[in-house]
Each structure stands twice: as structure tokens, then as C-alpha cells.
Specification:
Blueprint (H helix, E strand, L loop, with lengths): L14 E2 L7 E3 L4 H16 L5 H15 L6 H15 L11 H6 L1 H14 L2 H41 L4 H10 L2 E3 H8 L3 H13 L4 E4 L8 E3 L1 H7 L5
Antiparallel strand pairs: 1-2, 3-5, 4-5
Helix pairs in contact: 1-2, 2-3, 2-6, 5-6, 6-7, 6-10, 8-9
Length: 237
């Protein structure tokens, strides 16, 4: 099937256990109805509601039920959550990960969405989604604190290890990009190449970073800051 990435679907899709639409668990709107459905979705997005989180709950479900693309609807729907929260002034930057909670509770997540379409059970969906927001907020806060604690620890260690005026620049680079190549490290930090290589070697010897893939020829070595990555590795769209 041509999934037509980036294009509104022009075929009828469905969600089911096999390739037969008659066995489908859920059938979204026909292609001819998608434009109108998305226009309604956008109109509701622009409305001023008293409870923005309830509005977000409805917007999330509506997008998933319209299912406007042949593929990637779930990923886009999850990406919309932080973008809408940011646009509505709920968070300072569009960085709010809800995917981990939804993945852990996938059967209930799908059942709550299906119940909206099948039974009109908006209350059940909204209650589930608001609980997801609450739980994920607590988890995100714990991870943010863990990153800050790690940063403060490394900020004490790296200057002692490197004895370099570039220590803070190096720390900020590996925290911002925990998987990086040596060439990316040079570019991001602005540290002279000879000094940067020495710092990387020192961090490697102290096991602050590790080699993910050795370089060779024109290929730069790739490093990983494992402790930083371990904190957030579950936060994937």
C-alpha cells in the first residue's frame, strides 16, 4: 500500500486484526469526510475553553478517531499533545512526553478510544487521559530532577578530571546531545580540536562517556553519555 507520507489519505483505512474491513474493530471517516472533520477539529482547537486539559483530551481523541493519514496517526497524535499544551500556555516549551504512560497502558488506551466511537463514552476517555497527564507529569518531574542532580554531580567531576577552562562547555554538550560524534562535539562546543580530543579521552578514561562506535578513516568516533541517556530513554514518541 502507498502510505503517502505527509498527505491526507484518499482511501478508506481501518483498524483490525486482519486485512478485511468487515472484521475491523474501528473504521474512521471516509476520505471525503476528512477535510470537514479536520476543519471542525481546528475550530475546536481555537476555542477558548474553561478547562484546557479537558479540551486537550477531546482534541487528542478527535484526531485519533478522524485518523487522517494512512500511517503515523498515533505518533502524530502523541506529538500534538505537547504542542497544544505549549500553544495553550500550559507549559513553557513543547516538551511533554506522554508516550511512556500510553505505551504502558496500551490496551486500556485503545479501549477508551474505541468506547468513544462505539458508545459515545467521552467521560471514560477524559478521565483516563487526565489521569495519564497527571501520572506522566509526576514521572517527568522525577526525570527532570534526576537530570539536574546528575548535571550537578558531573559539574563537580569534569573540571577536576580535565583541569580545563572548557569543562562547562563540554558538560553542556554531552547533556544536550548524549549520543554524539567527535566532530559534533567539536562543532557544538567550539573547543579547539586538540583540546577537545584530550577532553574526550579524559572523559572516556573516567567512564563518564563511552565509545559507541570507533571511528576510522573519515568516520568520526561516536560516543554515548549513558547515565544521561538512561534517565530519558523511555521518553519516545
Amino acid at each position: 500500500m502507498d502510505r503517502e507520507p505527509g498527505c491526507i489519505r484518499t482511501i478508506q483505512n481501518f483498524i483490525g486484526r486482519d486485512a478485511h474491513i468487515e472484521h475491523a474493530v474501528f473504521v474512521p471517516p471516509a476520505p471525503g469526510d476528512i477535510t470537514g472533520a479536520l476543519a471542525d477539529w481546528e475550530a475546536y482547537l481555537q476555542r477558548e475553553e474553561k478547562d484546557v486539559l479537558v479540551q486537550l483530551s477531546v482534541l487528542k481523541a478527535q484526531f485519533e478517531l478522524v485518523h487522517p493519514f494512512c500511517d503515523g496517526n498515533g505518533r502524530i497524535g502523541r506529538m500534538l499533545v505537547p504542542l497544544i499544551m505549549y500553544e495553550k500556555g500550559l507549559i513553557r516549551s513543547p516538551m511533554y512526553y506522554i508516550s511512556a504512560y500510553l505505551e504502558r497502558h496500551r490496551p486500556v488506551y485503545y479501549e477508551r478510544l474505541l468506547a468513544v466511537s462505539r458508545d459515545g463514552d467521552w467521560n471514560g476517555w477524559i478521565a483516563f487521559f487526565l489521569h495519564a497527564i497527571e501520572e506522566q507529569a509526576e514521572e517527568n518531574s522525577k526525570k527532570a530532577k534526576a537530570i539536574l542532580d546528575l548535571y550537578n554531580e558531573v559539574k563537580r567531576t569534569v573540571p577536576e578530571v580535565t583541569r580545563s577552562q572548557y569543562a562547562v562547555a563540554a558538560i553542556d554538550a554531552i547533556f544536550g546531545t548524549p549520543i554524539f560524534s567527535s566532530s559534533e562535539f567539536f562543532e557544538q562546543t567550539g573547543i579547539p580540536k586538540k583540546t577537545a580530543n584530550r577532553i574526550l579521552q579524559q572523559l572516556r578514561e573516567r567512564e563518564i562517556i563511552a565509545v559507541l562506535a570507533e571511528g576510522g578513516g573519515r568516520r568520526a568516533t561516536t560516543y554515548v553519555f549513558s547515565r544521561r541517556l538512561a534517565i530519558t530513554e523511555g521518553n519516545r514518541l
